[in-house]
Structures are given as C-alpha cells and as structure tokens.
C-alpha cells in the first residue's frame, strides 16, 4: 500500500552533481554507456534551462497532487523533484505556488511525467519544468502516494539521491554511486568532442577523422555515380 | 444536415468577459469547479499570448475551411473564433489572410482543433492561435458546415457567446450565464493564492499553511528514515 | 540490400531553389496543387528559420547514424540533408558535431524523421533542424543504409536533388523538374494574396472578395437569427 | 461543483430505440446527416456485439470509479451506461462485478472513454463494452462526479435518455427528440443500399448506378493510358 | 492538380504475384532486404486473412471517397486496392457496398491508410481490409484525387501494378520488376527457416545453429553468475 | 556498457508462481496495493491466453534482436521472456522460430515492449505474446544488450525471477519476495469478489453491499429529479 515518506535519503555528492549541468544531458547519457535517458516525451516548458541536482521522488495517483505537497519539506538545496503518476495522467499537478514553495527550499526544477500549469509564471520565476504536457487541469488531494521510494519516470528507474541532469535535450538520470565515474567519462568525452569539432569545422569528415572507410567497405558499402 | 449560420447570438457581458484574460486559464478553470478545460493537445503557436473573448463557433468538414470564410462577417469586436472539424483533421485550415480579415473585425484570436499555418506571420501580427498542430496543408471549399451552433472542441461543449479564455496553459470555456459568478470566484481564488504565495516564499509548507497533516495521518501516511 | 552511395546527383537549379525560402512552405505547397507537404509531426527545433535547398537523402536503420557520416562528403553548398529511418525511431541521430561538419560543406539544414539533440548548440550555430522529436538517445555505427537513393520522409517521396523548403510551418518537397514552374506559380499566388490581404485589412470579407455567396446558397447555406 | 445525481430522466421511446441495433452505427450516423459519431478510439472489447439503448451518463474523475457505483440504481431495462472521465485516463474503471450489477438492472452495455478490465469474463457474460483501451489499473472511491448530466464522450455531446447505438464499427448517439425521424431515415437508407448492393454484385459500378460521370468530368477528371 | 485516372497499367505477373500469399508478409519483407513494409498502424479488420495481388492505387482527399468509386472499373481479377489520403484522415471511406462492387470485379482486398466501416459485413463476406482504424464516419464526393499514380501508403512508395502481400503481420509491397527475384529469395528463405525450425524444436539454440558465439565474444559479451 | 548475461538467477517459487494464472492480472494487481501493472499499450496478439511464470529479462537495442537469441539458453521450464528496447522501437523482434526455440525450453510466453510477427503461426502454436504492436519489420544482430539484469518494461521495474502474470487484461509483475503474500491476498480478494458477485447478480447495489451511502452524503452527493 502506498503512503510512505522516506526521510534523510543519501544524496549524490554535491560537487559531482553540480558539475553535470554544464556538460549536459547528451554527454552524460553517452558517457554512461548510452543509458539513463528519460523518454523524449518529457519536454522543457521553456527553452534554455540547464540544471543538475539530486532526485527527490514522488509517486502520485492519477489526478491527485497531494503527495507533492508532502514532498516539499523533504527537499534540500540542490534537489530536483521527480514526479510520476501510477498510471498515465495529463493533469496539471504543478504550478507556481508549489514552485514558490520548492524554490524557497532550494529546489532547482521539476521533472514530471504528467502535466504542468502556470507556464508563464514559471518562466518568469526561472523555475524550469520538464513535463509530458502543459495542462491547467486541477487535481484533488484525497489519496496517498509515496515520497522517496524508487520509481519509474519516463521509462527509467530513479532512486532518491540519484543525479538528474536536464536541459533542452531532455532528462537523464545518473545513479548516485556511479556519478563520479560518469562525471570523469563525461569530461573526457567533452574534451574529445572539442577536438573533433575543430577538425569538422575545417572541413574534414568523420570518415577520415574516425577512420571509418575500411570498415564501411568491409560491410559492403558501394559507391556509384548518378546516371 | 449541416449548413446553418446563426446570426445575432447573445454574447457574454463584455466587461465580465474581458476581465478573465488577466486572471488566466488555470484560475478560471479552478473557480468553476474544475470544469470547462479544453484538451491539452490544443497549444499556442507562440508563447506569451493571453486573451479572453466571446465564442463564435464554426463546425467544419475534414479538409474544408469554407465555413471559416462564412463566419468572418458574423464576428464582432471582442470575439474569439472556435473551430472544430467533424472528424479528426490536421490540415492547415487557417493562416494570415483569414487572420487579417478576422482582426479587421475585432476578433482576438482563434482556437482550432486542427492545424494552422503562417505561424511566422501570425506571430508578427500578434494574432494568437491555439491549435492541435501546425500544418501548411491546404483545404478546399466544397462542403458546408455550421456557424454559431453549439459544438464540441477539445472535449468541451462550446455554446456561441460563451466566454473563452486562452493563455500559455491552454484554453477554458466559461458558460455565458455563469460567467459573472465564475469571475467573482476567480478573483477570490487569485486573492487567496496571493496570500499563500507569500507564506510559501517565506519557507512555510502547505502541510502547515493548509493544515493537511492530521488528515494525511488519518489516511495512513507514515514516515520512515532511510537506512 | 542497403549500402549504396550515389555520387554526383543532379540538383535543381540553384537560382530557382534559393528563391523558395522567401516564398515559404505554404505558398509552395499550394502552388504545386496542394502536394508535397511532409507530415506535420516534423517540427523545427527553434522558431524563425526559413530555408530552401537541394535534397541529399539518407536512409538509416533504427538507432544507427553511420550513414549520416557517410553522407557528409556527398553534400555541396546549398544542400539540405533529408534523413529517414527504415522503421520508426525517435533516437537522437544528429547533434552539433555533425552539424559542424555539414555547415562546413555548405549544408543549410536538416530534415529528419527521427530525433535530434544538442538543441541549444544548434540554435546558437543557427543550424536549423526539422525533426520528429528532440532526443539525446545515442546511436551506433554498425549497419549500412543508403545515400542519395529516393526515400519516403514524412509521408512524401524525396528524390535526391529535389527542392526542399522548410520554415515554421513545416517542410515541403518540390520535384526538381517541376521546380521552375512551381516557382512561377508561387510568385503568382503570393502576388494574388497580397491583393486579398489589403482588401481583408480594410474590412472586406472573402465571401465578397472571392464571390462565394451564390455558390454557398446553391449548396443550401441558410441564415437564421438567434432566438 | 460535481456531485449531482439526476433521477427520473426521460428516455427515448423504447420501440424506436431498440430498432436501431439491427440498422447499425454506420446507417444511423449517415441517416442523421453524418453527425453523432463518437471518436474511433472507442473500440469494442470483443467482436460481434450490436446493441442499442438509452443513455445513462456518468462523469468520473481520473482514476476514480465511485460514481459508476452510484449510477447503477439509476439504470433501467434497456439502458446503456456512458462514462467519461473529466480528463484523459486509461485506468480500468469497470469490470465484471459492475457488469454483473448492471446486467441485473437490465443494462445492455457500456461505452467508456477510459479503460476496462476483466475482458475474458465480460466476453463470457456477453456484456459488451466499447472503451478507449483495456487496462487492469484499479481505481479509488474518493471524489464525486455526476450522474445523468449531459457530458461529452468521444467528442460528442450525450444527453441522458438519448439513443446510443454500438456495434463493430463504433458508437453513435442519436438525440432523443430526433430519434423517430432518424429511425425512419435509417430504414430508407438501408432499403436504398439494398438496391445498390444488388446492382454492384452484378458488376455495375457506382459511376453508372449513381450517375457520377458527368459531374466528375465537369470537375476535370481526365483519363489517360499507361505508357 | 489532382484528377488523373491511368488506365491499362502493367501488372506484375499473375503467377508470381499469387504465390506470395502463402509465403507471407514477413518472408517477402526479409527476402527483399528488409524493405517495403508498410507501417504497423495498418491492421487487419479480422484475423486470418492472407492475400497477395497487384496494386491499384487511389489518392483521396481527407473525408472524400469519390475516387474509390472512380477506381472500381479500373480494377481487374487479382488486384488489391491501395488507398491513401493526401493528409491524415480517420474517416470510414470504405464499407460493404464498395466491397461488393470490388469483389464483383475480382478484387481481393483493400489496404487503406484511413478508416473502414461495416466490419461485421466485410468479415461475413470474407473481404479483408487493412486499415488505420475502424470508423463509421461518412465521407463526401466533392473533390478529385488520382487513380493509378504512384503514391505513398504507410510510409512506402506504391507503384500501380506492384505486388501487395497482406496477412496478420501487416502489409508489404514488392516492386513489379523485382517480384520474380524476391519470390525466389522468399522460397529459399522459407526452406532455410524450415530447417532451423526443426533444430530449434529439438532444443538446439541459434547461438549454435547459426554459430554466433564467437562473434558475440568478440563484441565483448560476458557471462556472470547471479550472486 | 551493455553486454552482460547473468546465469543462474533465483526464481520465485514454482507453486506460488503457477497459481497466479488462474487468479488473473486484475486480481494480482489489486492484491498488491494496485501496483506492478505494465502499461496498457502492451496487448495480447490473440484473445484467451492466460499465463504466469518467472521473468527472464532481455534489454535490446532498437532494431536488433541478437540478445533474444542469447537469452534462449538462459531460460527454464516455467519462464516468461520479458524484452524491452533501450529506446522506443516497433520492429518485429520476435517470430515463430524464436518461439519454437523458447517453447522447447519450457518458456510459456513473451512480453515485449516492441513489435512481434508471425501472429498466425504463434496463434496456431499457442505461444502467447503481449506486445506494443504487430510488425513484420526485420531486425539485425550487431549490438549487445543484457540478459537478466533488472529492466523497465511497460513502465514497471522487472527483476529477473519475478512473477509475471499475463492475460486478456494485460501484464502485471509481482516481485519475487512478495509473491507468496500477494498470492494469499489475491485469493482472499477473489473469494470476497465471489460473494459480492452473487449479491449483485441478485440485484443488490454496491451502495448497499459496501455501505457507501453515508460517505457519499458526507462528500456532498445530492439527488435531484429531472424536470
């Protein structure tokens, strides 16, 4: 039965967590072996936000946002709230009042596999949200869910305290324990990409930069001229 | 059989109607008992528009926008055109020419459960549209529909003359006769939210502000510490 | 079997091709008899881009972007890359590194019936993309596809060298051989619309401007007054 | 505010209502001027059922089926229950226990814009359901809705007491007051179709049977031989 | 401009065409290099049908089935009608009357990227249809389309006279000229699969039957025991 | 990096596992507090199958079914294969040859968040599959995935060895360790439902059987007579 709130979760290291924002979602996803990416139907409500933080998770019934209210006081500076309904729901679970409360507790943003409202006010506040849709549909406060139990959001398992990275490309989760290694791999990847970028900008092609021609030929690639 | 145009509809009071824009979609939806919200797949073509007005309704066949042309002269200052196809259609029924004509008649915007085109020009004109999608697909002018009969748009019944409110959060309909009462309730709600906002900004949580703790405990909410 | 790269395709005339950008997608689509429009689920990753160019086509397996790398050196100044997976895939086949390489070869943008990533960087670079979704999901380089064979993208047949026009309203293909005639028809349509626009702005309605009233009456349109 | 149950609704005449089942959905929809058809995402859970009856309507919150329980005793012999959630929900609001209760009250089937479960048992019982999906997801009993107020289901306005017709082709609503006229028109259409069927079976084509050739030519239809 | 009917198309050889039905969609698709498969949203209206035939193509406007009537007399024994709307439409373009007419001309079935109605009657007649959805929504007869021009249906280019194969797994197109070679390859594949089937039934695994272990190891596959 | 096969997983007790099939998905889902239900887009390819078994999990890349081949020899009598792609894919990963191999190892069925083919043969074999869609689209064997690591399928976390129950209502997972308790609760629920069923069949309503009237009145339910 739902109705559990776990207090005092262990969070990923703050320094590690905070560095992911500048590296971005695509790099973190690639650096951990192309894993952890939430489904692409979770989109930012405004362009340009880029955050990383530690997950506080909330499981909610369809059309009922009570547990988000319960979750606020479990949040700490540097957290990102991750909310998933127990079955598909597009309702507007979240708006500027909850954002005001979360921001006062240091929360950096919200990832929700449901709807969000007050888009204009959230944009003005600079409180970023990644949601399934925008909807003003109101919710009730009748049924319990859970705070800080592991949950599935956007097709990925999120354990409280994991690192969440979100930007214009979507959302990725990095498990707490592997975060330092993924951070290091992300930096290595970013450095390598910078080198490639310069060669590409100079007109070189990846077939040469990454030595793909031989393997393509082995696979049977054939060139022909247009008639 | 389709093919009716109703002239001289009774519109909601102008003062009441116009005040809704600043209160917004979410507030009006909540204030009328969480009713009247159109489906969240109706999205604004550009961010930041916020309008309210009286509904002129147009029922159109799939792929045929003739009746929108018929509807133009039935519009008056302060109206919002509401268009729904008789079966799902994504075509671009509407573009800048029709917007120019509507704007010349004082129409404030369009809600259409279909496609819209000329997004750049509409944005430049400041003529807001809430649509199912953006599509340049052209339409024909062969088959009749109806103007100013009640219709269903985005899953809601819209009666001509009702109040339509639309902003970044979507679209809501407020029935003409209940509009004054809903306006009053909306203002009360906005005032109450302002009070809550200040307490949340100061770090209070809704569990206390709204006295939820006792009822949560009765429902069985249990707190436990992470191991 | 896949694995063909066609070199030296014949492209639509540059002057004809380049003029389409200012005329726009809706006009070109209408001017060629309401044909050629790609499906409305292909959306621009940022607003305001408007391009035209010649198609270089790439057919890719699901989750494998190898052939986009192969395609880069087949591109020339003024091309637009058109990519379609052999079955539905939302992965992020394309990002800023490939964009850097394509831009260095004079490519003006990308149309892809799949996902795209690095949205912020692509926006900053001014490299426009029309895609099915935004997704950071990484892809492999294991399986061949084809470059510059005809393919279906967004429900339309695209032959290499065809004209592609893309703006905020979506994407349209104009076959290479008919491009000059479509261009002429597009200009005629734009001129005619300008005349209509002025009459609409002055308050005239299309029922009169386009003499629709008689035919509407023949179809049985009937006016009645609200009771 | 939700929470109303209307008793003693006026139902369409029983003889008229019951005759629609054999005429079927497509015929009734055509006979009333191609109106009243519910959206095609409402599908039967098993093939071959064909019913007509009078609507008892239930508006339910997302994830909450309490009001269906409330509705049972408002049902009478020959009714069809029509259920719509106030926002999109795929949960399994309905199963064999409720079907047993409804069947005991003479209800002939269910139309629900949400999920349904116990498909095997419902099939065995011969209690047909047209639903958005099949889902075992359980629902709560916490929040009120309405019984026998007009509602929108599948994009159509349903007034309690209207005629509902449902078969393998979907669901159509026929307003109570127009039901006798629609029945007569349906019979006329069925008779006319029988005549056409025989001519088609003999190899005649509708171009001749319905004299379409001249009008097609006027529209510009042109025949050419394959080269 | 639409409005062309091409007569006297060249059809794939009858013997070759008719043999595909027993080989099935999956085998033909694989045998031609995993190409030609129509999108999986085209589903049979009843289970168990398996047909092959030559394509007669019909391009129709949204909500307008006039051209299907035009197409009937262009059909010959052994054809399959392939219909695609110029933009997405779910209407019920096709029912038992048209099926009666087509069957009288020897047509074996219909593939339509839109809706179909009269499911019960079509099932009884044994006239199979693969459609996007079932819908009773009626259509008009006002606007021209084309018969026997190449079109895109379910994401594949269909040229009139091509081989269409359809069964419970969906629909595949085999181009007319390559049909004999694909037929031969299909038979070879079916024979090879029969051999594998017997080994699998005896408990062997494909890792051995197809000698995959070495290549898996090279790719880095590693086995570990559950702790 | 993907590429792990875990051998010798611990499976839920066979007696407990096998008993779930007769209790069914809805009962198991309710009995474990309305948890564990996979998304309703996973549907059976034929009606009437009802199975329970222990999960063997396979994570596969989009368009690549190699790891299903790897998984076969990890299966044992009484298992159910659970397959999820790392990003959305509708391809036909699975058909009768793999089913033959799995059946020879005692596997009872397949749950796959992707496509399945050879529907007719699988139906004939009596090898049930719950899939996202039916598709004949072929897949490659180039990229590794994982066997018997926990994965998310249909929005639920599946740990190898968990109990899977699947029938016409969908699929539910019961965690291995809680399976005995859930079984007991399922039986209790089934017994209770049987008692209710008899009362409902006799015409009683749940408002009385479950004593709901008082609480409904407290919530504000009001009865009114139709005017």
Strand-helix topology:
The structure is a homohexamer of 227-residue chains.
Chain A: E1 4-7, H1 14-23, H2 25-31, E2 43-44, E3 51-60, H3 66-71, E4 79-85, H4 96-104, E5 110-116, H5 119-125, E6 129-134, E7 146-147, E8 151-153, E9 156-158, E10 163-167, E11 170-174, H6 179-201, H7 206-209, H8 213-219, E12 222-225
Parallel strand pairs in A: 3-4, 4-5, 5-6
Antiparallel strand pairs in A: 2-6, 3-7, 3-10, 8-9, 10-11
Describe the structure.
The structure is a homohexamer of 227-residue chains. With 227 residues, chain A is α/β, with parallel strands linked by helices. Chain A is built from 8 helices and 12 strands. In chain A, the strands form 2 sheets. In chain A, strands 2, 3, 4, 5, 6, 7, 10 and 11 form an 8-stranded mixed sheet that branches. A two-stranded antiparallel sheet of chain A has the order 8-9. In chain A, strand 5, helix 5 and strand 6 (129-134) form a beta-alpha-beta unit. The longest helix of chain A is centred in the C-terminal third of the chain and has 23 residues, at 179-201. The model of chain A has no long low-confidence stretch (mean pLDDT 97). Chains in contact: A-B, A-C, A-D, A-F, B-C, B-D, B-E, C-E, C-F, D-E, D-F, E-F. At the A-B interface, strand 1, helix 3, helix 4 and helix 5 of A face helix 2, helix 6 and strand 12 of B. Strand 12 (222-225) of chain E pairs parallel with strand 1 of chain F, so a sheet runs across the interface.
